[in-house]
Give the backbone structure.
Amino acid sequence: MCFELLGGRLLAPYFGSSVYVWGSIITIFMLALSIGYLVGGKYSLFRPSIFKYGIIFISSAISIIPTILFSEVIMEWVFSLVEDPRYGSLLASTMLFMVPTAIMGMIAPYSIRILTESKDSSGQTAGFLYFVSTLGSAIGTIFTSFYLVLWLEINQILWLTFWIMFSAGVFALILSFRQTNSLVDAS
Amino acid sequence: MRTMFHLCLILIGINSVAAKTLHKERSIYRNIVITQNSQKRCMRFETRRKAVSNQACIDLDDKQRLVFEYTRSILSGLAFNQNPKRILIIGLGGGSLPMAFSSLLPSTEVVSVEIDPAVAKLAKEYFSYQESDLIKTAVVDGRVYVKRALIKQQKFDWVILDAFNGDYIPEHLLTVEFLSEVKQLLNKGGLLTANTFNGSRLYDYESVTYQKVFDEIRIMKSPTKGNRIIFGCNCDTMDQKFVLDESLAKKLFPLGVDLQELLPRINDEIDWDTAVPPLTDQFSPANLLNQ
């Protein structure tokens, strides 16, 4: 959500803040998330591990970097290519937000797979996960729109998002190495 | 009996002043209301604030007269350049500015940019805004219009920013980057005029932002309302550029514009904190600062 809010800010200088600009952003975020959920769910079938889970976090962090570094160049290019600001903002949103958001979408189903211990408790696990992720979205939204934009530049907030995702990924990797080591020790 | 009579008089009095609603419309951006009393017809954006904020008004007895003090103040920009060939107005409202230009400068091209199609429609229906070969309207976001105009290498002699009201500021229209783009649209010696508001933390940030782009700016504050007109130009200095010309003053008088009173109010006094950072596309919490 933090990323989505900032998306609006990034696009405004080129495509304005008309209703359709927000329409484009929300469309692309929803589309990307739906793809991410599907892919993440499928991916969780193949030997799921904390290690792979960490890799998803790190990939999503890394995929934000082009958005931070090249957003101006990309929007400049789209602006000169597409005259209609509706399709311009749609194309720009696709190029800027599709990949990172889709990878972030993979996290949810993969988390369910990792956290689920039995078929009986799977509903509870999913419910808890929805709780955490939606609450996180709410906090991200209010914190970004009320305070962060007052304290930091947009790119600084995006870097902050990058570091949070990246650290979470690294944490998962460390956790998975610890696990394998303890397994090795045990044997 | 006497008190009853007085009460009746008061009621009649209230009735003739109270505005009746002519038309209500829900646009994609806001609710727009057209109201009218015996003297004026106004366009209002419905807000939660109690105080009525009229976006545009016309005097029904004298349609040429500009009702708002700030629109009259903007016209003092004609003392800077009496004969602008192309004028760009961002924020149409009821169209009173383009209509004033059309009568004052019949051979000047005036492009008005308005984001809300409903506002453009109502300006024509209720406020005698008329398009022609020279009076044009573009229904598009101001920033998008300016960027496209730059690509097409268009130039203007005067750009008027009137897209802000006291309640809401389009943040992407109040950044160093946007104002630089506007400056690039100006011919050498071209003028920028912006209608802005006093009375919040934003004042310092806004002033610094204009200063950063235009170096020298001139200010005209309203003596009664919270408006502040900012002038900047694509030129080396603004000293001695506003000239009181008798024939111009005469031409403007029927519109309610008194140049003799207005021009002495233009000053270069810096009464803001120059240490705050300017607003940029990366840092533009204008609405948060405007509380």
In short: Residues 2-180 of chain A form one domain. Chain A is about 90% helix and 0% strand.
